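WARN no homologs supplied; continuing
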Amino acid sequence: MHYKAPRGTKDILPSETWRWQAVEHKFREVCRLAGFGEIRTPTFEETELFTRSIGEVTDVVSKEMYSFQDRSGRDLTLRPEGTAPVVRAWVENNIGAHGLPSKLFYIGSMYRYERPQAGRYRQFDQFGLEAIGSDDPTLDAEVIALTARFLEQTGAAPFAIRLNSVGTVDSRTLYVEALKGSVEPYLQKLCGSCQTRYEKNPLRMLDCKNPECRALTENVPRLQDYLDEESALHFQRVREALDALGLSYEIDPRLVRGFDYYTRTAFEFTDQALGAQDAICGGGRYDNLVEEIGGPATPAVGMAMGVERLLTVLDSRSAKIGVRPHPVVFVVRLGEKAQVPGLALAARLQELGVPAEMDYGGKSMKAQMKRADKSGARLALLLGDDELASGQVSARDLIAQHQWRLPLQNCAEMIQDYLSTSESGEIEAA
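OK structure emitted
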């Protein structure tokens, strides 16, 4: 029997993982500079954490979660998103006692039973930011600015920033009544999804991608006109902060986030390279979530980004990030006697921080040199019977095309010096 990866998942092979590592490294560095610390939460949580926080009528909870009972009968779910687990961990571990706001970031896999398509998988990875403990509008702006900085530094620019405010629960309740009243006369002309949303999650009608639905709902009331005074002032100050930072954005009155926990600020970063589903990432404020899952009333704001979607954008930009790993030194072992000394030489080079590889199986010198060239190595070190007899190693610079001999005893140290001092020795080893 031949086994395959489950539908909606994929293997990330060594030919690709170096790119993942590069964007992960960049994200960690950007977060570090802004004072965000990494948090790692379990892959699965109690199911109720997600049904309460995301909302039972959302697509994620009603259609897409991977839920199961363990052997003790507990209802568990593979995490479909990262915010609720981080907030649960913040409450459980009393992270706020160390000072507010708590600035956290995460990198991890999420799971949703979605229809697989380009850039969308059933197991996918996310970068996320969570800033818990302040309702300061400049914190919203910092999360947006940090996201923009990360995308610029990875090569994902240009992108568009869409911005809106979804207000408080009370102001949204008033707006939903007006929205439903406006839509009701032509409800039957909307798509099946919008008709379902009309009853269960009316705000999501604004987010429908169907051109006919968007045309029919073009003149519905604007959510911004129903904001309470405090939310309107908060949104104004967020915009002022973004303006001061020199960030361009578009006010999108149709922008709503898919989870029930969002309040006030909502934003998305989009790119046309992704097609109809053009969001690279999104986020916003969730001032009621901490209290909703058992903690004290605590404001918060966050962002989540799909790694696969980011890499799709980088591919479309032909962005160069990271360096594909390759050996700097290739040890060519000729003959039975050279096998162990050659292994020891490669190991010593690695101890000194010099990427070193070798061939296996006793191939000819020509075959090994061919592999050394193909590997991208800068130097080849030849060790055979003649070299062992003289206590030396033949070194060949594959770029400068010259060859010399070195004493075997301290060959690795001399190679390290050569690479660090020669003009053409500036090699970035990933």
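The chain is about 40% helix and 20% strand.
OK
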